[in-house]
Structures are given as structure tokens and as C-alpha cells.
Design goal:
The structure is a homodimer. Chain A is mainly α. Chain A has a single domain, classed as Orthogonal Bundle (Arc Repressor Mutant, subunit A). Helices cover 64% and strands 12% of the residues of chain A. Chain A has seven helices and three strands; from the N terminus they run ααααβααββα. In chain A, strands 1-3-2 form a three-stranded antiparallel beta sheet. The N terminus of chain A is likely disordered. At the A-B interface, α1, α2, α3, α4 and β1 of A face α1, α2, α3, α4 and β1 of B. The structure holds a DNA duplex.
DNA sequence: TCAACATTTGATCATATGTTCATATATAAT
DNA sequence: ATTATATATGAACATATGATCAAATGTTGA
């Protein structure tokens, strides 16, 4: 319990409200994980990559050409998306084909698009 | 069309795949808006604020006490969430009560939680 | 009007982020 | 083996981000 908590406790805080919400509050680590997931979706390049992969698997070079950035930039972002288990890949000769590794992305994008387009 | 696009065009790019995806690709501004929305959800403090507001409206001081950060930090984050039209507020005396201003947050969190907890 | 309180705002600072460039790795073809 | 191609990686750099502090604003009650 931090200093400002104590300070608030004796001033403006509605204790009942805070207690009520605290019962159902997210655990710290879950909040952090959730934020990391959304952060992974929070960049235009990564949004484009994931949206493109909703249609079909693509190799790094395809994605770079489609989105208009260097292969290096795409590769760096794919690494991050891999770390979040949002994409998976398979190697075929010299190419590496990426595809979605998560069933929630479509719904996340659908909900997100509803928000931004209304 | 950028330099690396031309380079790719004569090398590894699968033109058919890229053309196919390009047909249904997000517009630049929509991709940016979507990324901005997810970026707004991409911070633990903001995740906690929004999650708390799923239960009930709370004033700045309540949120600060609940989450364990200063009122100033909460206020700064609320400003950002307001800009994204994710929260709205009403003034009651000296307090300002915040509540959700978007029907998609619950579903976004539900989908996100499924991803991070599996 | 003044004092106290709740919130907001601006400045500052340390850290995180995203791209680029150069280089390394991996595979294929000659 | 050597070369070319596709991807990955690390360093560097400019920019963005999030918290804190101090100060400003707005509201209430004495």
C-alpha cells in the first residue's frame, strides 16, 4: 500500500466502491499480460501484418512488398508477434511462410474496427 | 511504390498472393486508427482502469487508490482514454466520475484474456 | 474572499519503441 | 565450394511513452 493510498484513504476515496471493485480486479500479472497482448496489436505495421495473414499465409518478402517496408522491419515485427504467440511459421526452401497462430485475432479486429468506425 | 518493393518484385515476391491480399487490405488510416485503439489498451495502468470501470464508475481518487498510482498518473491516462473515446466522465462536486464509453471493451478484454490464459 | 480539496496540466526524465543499416545465418543452385 | 537469395539479428538512432513533481484550475464550504 503506497503513500498516496493512505492519503486517499482519509480523503476522497469511496471505500465501498474501491472494495467492491477490488474483489473482482485483475491480478497484476494478468493485467500485464493483457497489456502486452494489446501492445503487440498497437502498431500500424503489426496491424497490417496480422490483417494480411487473416487472408492467407505469406512469406516475409510478400509482407514487406504488401505493406511497403523493408524485409528487416517486417522480420523484427514478426519476431515480436511470434513472442506473443500471435503468428507461427514454416520454412519452405529459402522462404519462411508466416500464418496466424491465434483464433482470437479476427474477433479482436472485428471489435476494434467497430469501435474506430463508429 | 518503394525501392524494396521493386527489388522484391523481381525476386521472391509471390505476386498472386500479394495481389490477392491487397484487394481486401485495410486502408492506411484505418490501420493507424486500429493500432491507436490497441495501443490505448496496451498499458497495464490503462488495462486496470478500464477493467475496473467494467464493474462501476469511479472517481480519479478511487482509481488511484485501487490501482496504486498517483492521481496525476491516473488523470494523464484517463486523458488518453478519453481521446480514444473509451471513457466518459461526469462531474459531481469536487469529484469527477469516469465510466466506460464503449461497448466493445468487455468483448475485447474477454478475447484478450482467452488468448493470454491459454 | 479564503482555505481546502479533487483534478488537470506542463515540464522533465528515464526508459521503451520502431526503423534503418550492416552483418550473420540458412538454404538452394551452379 | 561458391554464389545468390531469403530471412534473421544486433547496433545505433530518433522518437514516443509513462511516471513524477510542481503548479494551475475548478469546486465547495467556512
Amino acid at each position: 500500500m503506497s503513500e498516496q493510498y493512505v492519503r486517499c484513504e482519509v480523503s476522497c476515496v469511496n471505500e465501498d466502491a474501491v472494495t467492491e471493485v477490488r474483489q473482482v480486479m485483475l491480478d497484476e500479472d494478468v493485467a500485464v499480460s493483457l497489456a502486452e497482448l494489446f501492445k503487440a496489436l498497437g502498431d500500424p505495421t503489426r496491424v497490417k501484418i496480422l490483417f494480411a495473414l487473416l487472408t492467407r499465409e505469406l512469406c516475409v518478402c510478400d509482407l514487406a512488398a504488401l505493406i511497403g517496408v523493408t524485409e528487416s522491419a517486417v522480420s523484427h515485427q514478426l519476431r515480436l508477434l511470434r513472442a506473443q504467440k500471435l503468428v507461427k511459421f514454416r520454412r519452405e526452401g529459402k522462404n519462411v511462410y508466416y500464418s496466424l497462430d491465434d483464433s482470437h485475432i479476427e474477433e479482436l479486429f472485428a471489435q476494434g474496427l467497430e469501435h474506430v468506425t463508429e
